[in-house]
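Fold this sequence, please.
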Amino acid sequence: MINSNAKTIGVLALQGDYEAHAKQLKLLGVIAVEVRLPKNLEGLDALILPGGESTTMNKLIDRFGLRQPLTEFCKAKPVWGTCAGMIMLSKNIEDNQANVTPFGLLDIDVLRNGYGRQVFSFEDSIDVSFGNGTSKLAATFIRAPKVTRLGKDVKVLGQLNNEPVLISQKNILASAFHTELSNDTTLLNYFLTKFLNG
């Protein structure tokens, strides 16, 4: 079990569903800090990059001088990117007409809106493996990115129709979907336990 009281987790709070992540962190008794400026990264044990609109998120990261501080933080400490967060962590974005500049830390290529636009949002049950067999996890896909290339050091932890939707590489966890929209803290608990205490 996590030593939750000792952990302070940042949630990038420029745009997107950061409030839902903060709510889940509080359900586990973890201190949640909203990150809007470089100084907000000080003293954090880990960071969550939430879903949202990657084009807007990309612009706001530059506007508030966060690109270099976020990149350095994500190189050194545990980070979980969901949906747009996965896009921002990726190495390359296919069909990048919006000129989003990813951090290039996660060795994958992604296709934005790979599972369809907002009107095609859906919920499904995905197969996940956290090292103790395969189980099911409820996942919500909203303008979700599709992973089109996996680097050799990237581990696939979850799949939908045999396509990777939950992956990890060193200190990074990334999901194409959302789990923070409900009270199910299974994936958040895994992140806190495996990446902070592992």
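The radius of gyration is 15 Å. The first helix runs from residue 18 to 27.
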